[in-house]
Known about the structure:
This protein is of the alpha/beta class. It has helices at about 1-30, 45-55, 75-85, 95-100, 125-130, 135-140, 150-155, 170-175, 190-195, 225-240, 245-255, 255-265; strands at about 35-40, 65-70, 90-95, 100-105, 115-120, 140-145, 160-165, 180-185, 205, 210-215, 220-225, 265-270, 295. The chain contains twelve helices and 13 strands. The protein is globular.
Amino acid sequence: MRNANLGAGPSRVRVVAWLLCLAWAARAWGAGPVLRCFPAGPIYQYRWQLLSLALAHTSGGADFRVEPATAEITQKRSLRQLQAGALDVLALGSNPEREAAGLPIRIDILKGIIGYRVFLIRRSDQARLDRMDDATLRREVSFGLQRDWADLPIMEAAGFAVETTSDSENLYRMLAAGRFDAFPRGLNEANRDLAAHQPANPQLALEAHRALYFPYPVYFWVRAGDLELARRIELGLRRAEADGSWRRLFLAAFAREIAQLDRQRRHVLLLSNPFLPTAGAEPDTRWWWRPSSQPITAPGAP
């Protein structure tokens, strides 16, 4: 009996271990493969909620889980990681380098809202900016941007002076220290940025009366050969738009910004974007912006 019991013990252990492995594998398989995505952070949460919504509107493929990358990398490096297979989906604006290296799903996921730029400034500069007309703004105000952002060449083509850095976190400190005068942020970004960085830089504020707008579509990007994933994302986006679920997500994500825009009377300077990837790529802003309700000048690029 003693020998029989000794023999049964290890056998039971092996059976239990085998069952536990099966249970773990079932959970892993049920969770589906991971889509590694960039960029990450609170201001990008909507982009990955939209990707999950699009994937949920398709069937017959893998049940992907969307996971934003946790590593701090630049946009330029994210493109290299996409090509190498270390990332699966990017959600970025277009530029010639990305057009050449990646495959965009050419549906603007932000409906143009990131092209509506308000400014983070030093609070003490508000009165000076209020005295400027558009021509003076172009001549005298310097802007800060990260050097691999796709909006940098748009601002430069429009004739603005721009200071750059490789680390976007430096821009808030540079602005506070007087290295440049204004940090243009998308309408969907500015309030979150200010809340995150004003405690360390209390002199920062949101400029009260001006905005820029330029066409700036943001796309999901996949590896150049990943046609199946690209088709699935495109199909899901179109279905989510058709049934209204995308619009509901968008309006919920940006409710504060849209309400703020309705209350304000900003003077909007319209800029052209000579780097749009294709004709007819200008975003449809009707979900959030009625340009006729605001004073606008439209000189384009000089």
